[in-house]
Amino acid sequence: MPDLDVRLLLFLALAGLAAGFVDAVVGGGGLIQLPALLVALPGAAPVQLLATNKLGSIMGTTTSALTYYRRVRPDLRTALPLAGAAFAGSVGGALLAFLITKAAFNPIILVVLVGVGIYTLARPSMGQMQRLRFGRRHPRRHLAVALLIGLVIGAYDGALGPGTGSFFVFALVSALGYGFLEASAKAKIANLATNLAALVVFVPQGAVLWQVGLLMGACNVVGGYLGARVAVARGSRFVRLFFVVVLAAFIVKIGLDTWSQLLG
After folding, report:
1. What is the Cα–Cα distance from 16 to 32, expressed in whole angstroms?
2. What are the C-alpha distances in Å from 154 to residues 5, 90, 177?
3. Angle at 112 between CA 108 and CA 117, to 5 degrees
4. SS3 call for 27
5. Is the pLDDT of residue 142 over 60?
6. Where are the alpha helices (DSSP H) in the chain?
7. Is the pLDDT of residue 127 over 90?
């Protein structure tokens, strides 16, 4: 890897800071970090960019997960099984990553994101208050749905990954009835597991660019801490608004990528 000048290092540091903040609030920091890595390291292999992004992300996600846990105290009876299923799914997804092209997934993900956006806007009260589905009468069903969410979204994160944190938040709010703040806290724990699982696959292959990943990770830590504190202080209404804004950005980004692929 060629040496990076000060301007590129500053660019990557700012990208890591912004990604950590966005990821802590509602997920999706990878859509900031990955394009930044592509710009700064055009000669790097795709697997190196993915692996380096995971290293930066896991440092910020760890910080935000700990901050959420101390301030929100999410129910670990759901969060830990969710994270375990997400870890297993992410390992499987990472192993399949070399067989799957991003071009094949972009149109599908775009449709899913548009559907999520329409559903969220059509239900303005969704996630404002916590109304758990299944509840105490059906704890096994509640856990089974959480495990399915972890496995499916974890596999997606290991294989590709854009918007994983947001998918976790949306699934926990819409399928299980959590408020946005509680869902974000659980999503951070699950996202930490998926990042760790991907690194378990990528590190032995020597795919991580350690100097760049540690720089972005340090900035990600600061962004993750600030983002989690802001989200906890402002509550579910703020997180929902941030979710909609970030979702719109995802739709624009992936929509432009899909359009470019069709034209190409």
Report:
1. 8
2. 35, 4, 20
3. 150
4. coil
5. yes
6. 6-25, 30-40, 46-72, 76-96, 102-122, 139-159, 164-176, 180-202, 210-234, 236-263
7. no
